[in-house]
Amino acid sequence: MTHPTGSTRIAQHRTYLMCKPTHFTVSYRINPWMEPANPTDTQLAVDQWQALYDTYLDLGHEVQLIDPVEGLPDMVYTANGGFVIDGVAYGPKFRFAERAGEEQPFITWFRENGLTVVEPRETNEGEGDFLLAGDIILAGTGFRSTGDSHREVAEVFDREVVSLTLTDPRFYHLDTAISVLDPVQGPGGVERANIAYLPTAFDAASRATLQRLFPEAIEVSDADGAVFGLNSASDGRNVFISPRATGFEAQLRERGYNPVLVDLSELLLGGGGIKCCTLEIRRSA
Ligand code: ARG
After folding, report:
1. Does any ligand 1 atom lie closer than 6 A to the CB of residue 31?
2. Whose CA is nearest to atom 7 of ligand 1?
3. Of residues 45 and 5, which shows the higher confidence score?
């Protein structure tokens, strides 16, 4: 199959942080997906999570683990536990009290694992709202992380930050509406990224910004967005996506990526998918 560059996509080695959903349940509601009255199946959540973990290892990636804490059912969504670039971990400060207990365990894990921790002043939910896209950071606001946290993250990492505003409560974190597929070398050696996104999740100004910065982006349909198709991880070749995002799967194949289907339907009851369960640990420049 051919795609615009005509070349073969190369997988890059990744290190991810995950947390087994031993204590997973839905006992409160902080996003529209969560319905505490409905039952959850913790064993099914663990089995689905294990399949994602095994898939990462099978494809040659490294997965590190943080111990789950009883009473913190959302800790499985490690993407919200921080944002890590070049060995520096910017810690989380959660919007809702229900998740505040996760802050110290993540910060402690970063310290014990040799990362330099920057404790945040501003409310932010880590890689849920901050995505490294080549050299720049895409930063989401509207529901969780604040605009002040965007300024803070720009200082911490000394990088250009592009603020984007989310408007649909179903897509309350940036990683539910944008997927970074791989970095690409642009003119002058500047690294840009290939991304996929859900246009209807953003306000008009943010849509215009995305069109300007990423004219080649894959624009994903509402149907694929609604099954959390964009909540995916990528190593530059293999893109880990929900099996229900069939249109997105076809778009990825057309561009020469290899979609790898992993079903996390039980974890979607908490409002999270593949990317939410995956925090990238970038140790060196
Ligand atoms: N129940 C969690 C919350 O609402 C889900 C977090 C999903 N994480 C993500 N990176 N989108 O905070």
Report:
1. yes
2. 272
3. 45
- Reported as a pLDDT band with limits 50, 70 and 90, residue 74 is very high
In a domain, 5, yes or no: no
- Which of the two residues, 187 and 236, has the higher pLDDT score? 236
Q: Is 0.95 exceeded by the ipTM?
A: yes
What CATH number does the domain containing 19 carry?
A: 3.75.10.10
pLDDT at 186 (0 to 100): 64
Ligand 1 proximity of 77 Cβ (cutoff 6 Å): yes
Catalytic positions, please? Answer: 173, 276
Ligand 1 proximity of 145 Cβ (cutoff 6 Å): no
Report CA(10)–ligand 1 centroid distance (Å).
30
Mean pLDDT of 233-240: 97
Q: How many whole angstroms separate alpha carbon 79 and alpha carbon 282?
A: 13
Residue at 251 is within a domain: yes
Number of domain units in the chain: 1
Q: Determine the distance separating the centroid of ligand 1 and the alpha carbon of 124, expressed in angstroms.
A: 12
Distance CA(145)–CA(129), nearest Å, equals 7
| 3, part of any domain | no
Q: Specify the pTM.
A: 0.95
**pLDDT recorded at residue 184:** 75
Q: Find the domain containing 115 and state its range.
A: 15-280
- Asked whether residue 1 is domain-assigned, the answer is no
Give the list of residues 6+ apart from residue 113 with CB closer than 8 angstroms, or none: 64, 281
CA-proximal residue: ligand 1, atom 6 (nearest): 272
**For 86-133, what is each residue's pLDDT tens digit?**
999 999 999 999 999 999 999 999 999 999 999 999 999 999 999 999
User: Is the distance from the beta carbon of residue 232 to the nearest atom of ligand 1 less than 6 Å?
Assistant: no
Closest residue by CA, ligand 1 atom 8? 276
